[in-house]
Amino acid sequence: MSSVTIQRLVDWQDTDAAGHYHHSTVIRWVEAAEAALLDRVDLSRLFGRIPRVRYEVDYLDRLWFGDTASIELSIGKIGRSSIRYDFIVSRIPARAAVPSPDRTVAARGALIATYTPSTEKGSRPWPDDIAGALRGQPTHLLPTPIREV
Questions:
Q1: How far apart are CA 114 and CA 101, in angstroms?
Q2: Helix H segments across 75-135?
């Protein structure tokens, strides 16, 4: 299955009054990783067609203003008309350029969306080409765009 890792700097607006990242920041980061993944497999056209139906997250540690977060997003399961993304948000140690085994996992969870290609109520089965691309079997892969932290 397809996966992607992006990095984000914990900015001032990502924090709350306690000084660490606000819970709502995680969904924005996860959706940014989703955008990178869908762009990579040439499925950006799915935006607006895969509404979220479930989101769950375990907050395990704090990230502070100025920290660098690594967001790893993978496709956990593709159902008949749904997709489950699994994610891990971790702190990249200040001296490391990439996540390492000694990283601090700050949050992990899942996001589930359904394929609804029209304005009609209800989901529809994935078309074969989309399901194949999501499973990592596309006719071509686009490079993951480089995004600066």
A1: 33
A2: 128-134
